[in-house]
Design goal:
Blueprint (H helix, E strand, L loop, with lengths): L6 H8 L3 H9 L6 H14 L5 H8 L4 E6 L5 H16 L3 E6 L4 H13 L4 E5 L5 H9 L4 E4 L10 E3 L2 H14 L5 E5 L6 H16 L8 E4 L4 H12 L7 E4 L2 H13 L9 E3 L6 H4 L6 E3 L2 H18 L6 E2 L3 E3 L12
Parallel strand pairs: 1-2, 1-3, 3-4, 4-5, 5-11, 6-7, 6-8, 8-9
Antiparallel strand pairs: 10-12
Helix pairs in contact: 1-2, 1-3, 5-13, 8-9, 10-11
GO molecular function: DNA-binding transcription factor activity; transcription cis-regulatory region binding
Protein name: LacI family transcriptional regulator
Keywords: DNA-binding, Transcription, Transcription regulation
Length: 339
């Protein structure tokens, strides 16, 4: 039977001590380049793999962080997670990723599975979930950081942005163009505090301008280009169609844009359309999509630093609010004269 290579075998092959090999594997920046290259070559030549299970037992940590996102089909989460993973690697941590498909029951199962597999901490999207899950995490002493939201009233730390305020700012820009008949195409608001806050932001901006928020037409639908298009068709065939459609994300807005063209409607001459997220496709849409740019990269990078610190020190950091930026592009224009 072939013997499994050990740390001592690497040390003999590289001509260094086992302590130097261990330091090179755990903190390579602390080892001189020439020595590091010899050790790395020895590791590759004999096929050595560190025993992370033994290390985890000794340290009572696995140096892994779990993250659960609602979907991997939307690039907005991918951009934030890339920055998050890059930050974790810099901290010597590994990312375990799961997608809940916007299902609370599946997310609950994933939280328990990640904890059972030894995740030292969890990154979750949004605050809203069964309080029993937070009790479970506290019982197992697994710190949790919430992203894509900012709500200082919540007991758990978060890094993200104020969804309600950001959407209210976009709505104010729409109202400044003279629009008064508004509609919103939104994702489902049940179990989704980000979506619910964005709809609330539209209503808050209307109220601030003396408009009745109850007049806002809201269609809730799963996120998707096809679903956005169907919702747009329903809105524009109503007896009093809106002059501006404020969408809960760019995917829905792109579907609305496509449907407007299919119905012979000019954007923004006949109807204005806005999105939220500032995905890459928003700039190449025809016309370019007015949207809200959210700080994906900074959010992911900050989350990595904050959650690693929570795991290693037990500290409870203050929540961090990051700014959003309006991108007022060609899909938003003045209210039509005939409206």
């Amino acid at each position: 039977m072939t013997k499994t290579p050990t740390l001592a075998d690497v040390a003999r092959r590289a001509g260094v001590s086992t302590a130097t090999v261990s330091r090179c594997l755990n903190a390579p920046e602390r080892v001189q380049r020439e020595t590091r290259e010899r050790i790395e070559a020895a590791v590759a030549e004999i096929g050595y793999s560190p025993n992370f299970g033994a290390r985890a037992l000794a340290a009572k940590r696995t140096d892994t962080i779990g993250a659960i996102v609602p979907t991997l089909e939307n690039s907005v989460f991918a951009r934030g997670l890339q920055a998050f993973q890059t930050g974790l690697v810099a901290q010597g941590m590994t990312l375990l990723l799961a997608s809940s498909a916007y299902r609370p029951d599946l997310e609950a199962a994933q939280i328990r599975t990640l904890v059972a597999r030894g995740a030292d901490g969890l990154l979750l999207i949004g605050h809203e979930r069964d309080p029993a899950l937070y009790d479970f995490l506290a019982l197992h002493r697994v710190p949790v950081l919430v992203a894509w939201v900012y709500d200082p009233s919540e007991p758990r730390p978060s890094v993200g942005f104020d969804n309600k305020a950001a959407m209210a700012e976009m709505t104010a820009a729409v109202l400044a163009q003279g629009h008064r008949r508004l509609a919103t195409i939104s994702g489902h608001t049940r179990f989704n505090d980000r979506t619910r806050d964005r709809v609330a932001g539209v209503r808050a901006a209307m109220a601030a301008q003396g408009l009745d928020p109850a007049t806002l037409t809201v269609i809730e639908t799963p996120y998707g280009i096809e679903t956005g298009a169907r919702a747009m068709a329903d809105l524009m065939t109503a007896p009093h169609p809106p002059t501006a459609v404020i969408c809960g994300n760019d995917v829905l807005a792109l579907g609305a844009l496509r449907q407007a063209r299919a119905m012979g409607l000019r954007v923004p001459e006949d109807v204005s359309i806005t999105g939220f997220d500032d995905t890459e496709l928003s700039t190449v849409a025809d016309p370019p999509l007015a949207t809200v740019s959210i700080p994906h990269g900074e959010m992911g990078a900050r989350a990595a630093i904050m959650l690693t610190e929570m795991v290693r020190t037990g500290a409870q950091p203050d929540s961090v609010a990051l700014p959003c930026v309006l991108r007022l592009r060609g899909s938003l224009g003045p209210v039509p004269r005939a409206a």
